[in-house]
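Re: your question from the hallway

Yes, I did run it. Sequences:
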Amino acid sequence: GENVEQHPSTLSVQEGDSAVIKCTYSDSASNYFPWYKQELGKRPQLIIDIRSNVGEKKDQRIAVTLNKTAKHFSLHITETQPEDSAVYFCAAAQIGGYNKLIFGAGTRLAVHP
Amino acid sequence: EAGVAQSPRYKIIEKRQSVAFWCNPISGHATLYWYQQILGQGPKLLIQFQNNGVVDDSQLPKDRFSAERLKGVDSTLKIQPAKLEDSAVYLCASSLTGAANTEAFFGQGTRLTVV
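Structure:
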């Protein structure tokens, strides 16, 4: 089955800097890669996703890149703000099947003022 | 639209006791997931339903965990008997089926503490 690895487990940046979180997946059939943000004590919420037919997607300060050949994808946050502090999870799924969503272990991002 | 509802929010039980969690997905969502999230880890898929049928339960410890989704709507997850290592947040999520609607919406979760 699918296995998703995520790095780093913790990331500390200064406000205004960029943050990058990387994930690799094992199942070449996976074609949908969402990123979830989970604030302390709250539910995970989708922040951006990418499908395998594109290599990059951007939404304001957040972007995701996908390298299907290498089976890895990354989350890029620019101009970080303290409210970006949270745990970020990547995930992989296969659309068209039953969309089994497998998560990485998470990255705890701390943005310091 | 209303979100995924879960209850209870918190539960403390002694080991070897039984416990049940309830989930009401977003109306019209055919896919329902139960995840176990141990502190400091990512959500681990326990079971996935498509309507009232089980799609995947390969990670469900079937000797103690059971789940059902009668009538393809609400779902319950049961643990009997509970062990200390079952302490975690149990998250329910739901999604529409089909390539165009794949976002999984999560409930607030049930925090289980086994003592």
